[in-house]
## 1
Amino acid sequence: MSQSTWKDQIKKKWGPHSHCPICGKAMPMDKQFCSQNCRDNYYASQKKQKKKSRIQMLVMVGMMAVLMVFLLFSSGF
Ligand SMILES: [Zn+2]
């Protein structure tokens, strides 16, 4: 009986591998991205994410400041 599932076949064909986090292509285990292009994309989106979270921080701090001022003024000035 030589019944091999498609999973076994894929394992045999591809060997151990991981997937590119950007485009999802199969690639060697030791690589982080399948290509220079995906690498650039990843770092670009990370940079954007950082900028976004910084803006969110600023908005939070600004809201806190407004709230503090509001509380100060509403408590008897
Ligand atoms: Zn890729």
## 2
Amino acid sequence: MKTSAIAASIFAACAAAGPAPAKRASLPTVSVKGNAFFAGGKRFYIRGVDYQPGGSGANEDPIANTETCKRDVAKFKELGINTIRVYTVDNSANHDECMQMLSDAGIYLALDVNNPLYSINRDSPAKSYNKMYLQSVFATIDAFQKYDNTLAFFSGNEVINNDKNTECAPYVKATDRDMRSYINARGYRKIPVGYSAADVAENRNELAAYMNCGPDGARSDFFAFNDYSWCDPDTFEDTDWSQKAKNFSSYSIPLFLSEYGCKENKRTFNAVSALYDTSKMTPVYSGGLVYEYTEEDGNEGFGLVNANGNSVTDKPDFTALKDAFSKAPAPTGDGGYKTDNKPSECPKKSTHWDVDLNDDELPLTPDGVKEYFDNGAGKAPGLKGGSQEAGANTVKTGPAASGAVTTGSTEGSSGTAGGANAKPSGGAAAGLAPEFMFAPLMCGLVVLVSSVFGGSLIL
Ligand SMILES: *[C@@H]1O[C@H](CO)[C@@H](O)[C@H](O)[C@H]1NC(C)=O
């Protein structure tokens, strides 16, 4: 056989393969528009739970375990949710099966990219913001960017947890910037990146403003906070949620509750009806996540279920939340979201805001990180080792978006189950599912290679 014949037959095989084989049903991807999320052309509200079976101290990945995933996805469906938040994953593990089970159940993932070994240490933020840390963060992005039901990445969780450690904020914001840079540099889907804050009264407004101020490349895609101030039988007006909704009414990016569910009294989850009410919260908030799915030792009273091996038993909280969700469907219209709010002003230094840098400055992306932008993060470290001591006690600072990569990511697909989606922003390949881009590319490559080595292949 002649080279040309080989090439031709490979070409024919590729052509015969034709349209990629039917892919499994996927969900429409979630993207940001104004101060809201959209999926499949419709406003998307987070209706979910925080999921960390084993508890926060376990440092375990609940979605690498197919058995517990299967056990719990059935319960998530029963509860009627569309999102889970996971706090820790092993970025070297395989998540295909659990992510598909979640997708099949209509459930998205909001994922923390940090874990106790690879994270910003609030006691030494400069030292812990380093190349080794970002490599782990980027490896997590590599592992999850391919799933259509990856909703969002959290750049940090409660790093600032009181009135005295706001000096950590620039390191959180730098990490947040670097994550967006990485997604852009790698040409991944534009998965929203933002921070999950502790609700600290003294710096609530400052921190939200800080994550949404400064140049384009340095502002978050969304902001979330953990709010336990609504304790049943409170109503919207009894709590400060009504004042918060007013205070954040001109906030320009999506806002949601990454944790809620005060356990002081019997939980009836009254907050749910306010959260999805167009006259109360939907113009400003995009829903929230109830803390938490499983009852845990050392954190008693928050769980919806008791889980042990294969068995899961509902606590009264499970039924209460299920009822609350069923009585408060997501609004059908756009919920009063806004597209014309302006980014925030950076907060001024004060007794409650201890950031010395100028508004337009941040820690610079650590030396050597650009190689990940160019080549990918490489081997995922998993839940071993640790990066917190790998840096120096001081970092270089400079223009906030210096070195940031601000373009290159693609819009998502509408999913096979979804309707019309936001238009791709441009570029011929934007919006195409990876399968459809790869098949022809691979074929092209095979043909090219076979022509180059063709000489030795002549039979
Ligand atoms: C609302 O904003 C005002 C002024 O900025 C602030 O003093 C107040 O504490 C805020 N209220 C809440 C509940 O965040």
